[in-house]
Amino acid sequence: xxxPCNTFLRxxxxxxxxxxxxxxxxEMQAPEIHQIWQCLHQIADPELPVLSITDLGMIRAVTxxxxxxxxxxxxxxxxxxxxxxxxxxxxxxxxxxxxAPVDIEVNLTPAWTTDWMNADAKQRxxxxxIAPPQGLACEKPAELEPILCPRCGSHTTEKISEFGSTACxxxxxxxxxxxxxxxxxxx
Length: 187
Fold this sequence. Notes:
CATH superfamily of the largest domain: Fe-S cluster assembly (FSCA)
Shape: elongated
Distance between the termini: 40 Å
Largest sheet: 4 strands, mixed
Domain PaaD zinc beta ribbon: 145-185
Helix content: 10-25%
Number of domains: 2
Protein name: Phenylacetate-CoA oxygenase subunit PaaJ
Order of helices and strands: EHEEHEHEEEE
CATH class of the largest domain: Alpha Beta
Number of helices: 3
Pfam family, one: FeS_assembly_P
Organism: Xenorhabdus beddingii
Domain MIP18 family-like: 35-95
Strand order of the largest sheet: 1-2-3-4
Radius of gyration: 19 Å
Number of strands: 8
């Protein structure tokens, strides 16, 4: 017997049934959850406009409530200056799409990690001129490997600074094409 679809994690996999499944009306089923995910995918990250908040894995869950929806959101770091902007963007986007009321739950545990970025997001970062994270955050030795230049593909690169345009990026230079570039660190 198929379980009701009460909530979806960022991966799209259903969570175990909620403690009060009777709060779900027939119109609050999976198709609307998927529509909400599509709306959230339209919200660009203000620091990386080529990526959406869903590409980055910042949306942890979409859960139907008795009279609306809860969106569980994890900013890229606890002091992220864009947090308030993104909360407002989520609220406004879903309200305009007819999914009000919306409760935004900011969840800082576990902390966001680059491991939550999808493969398409990493490819778009490369095309945008930013070297995407290599390896997994828990495998810090991966940063000892040469960072691939996003412009020419060379492995002969050097770190110029531990910090680039933001704290989550390091500044590198390609020794082949001589272009500087940001590397999105594994965090």
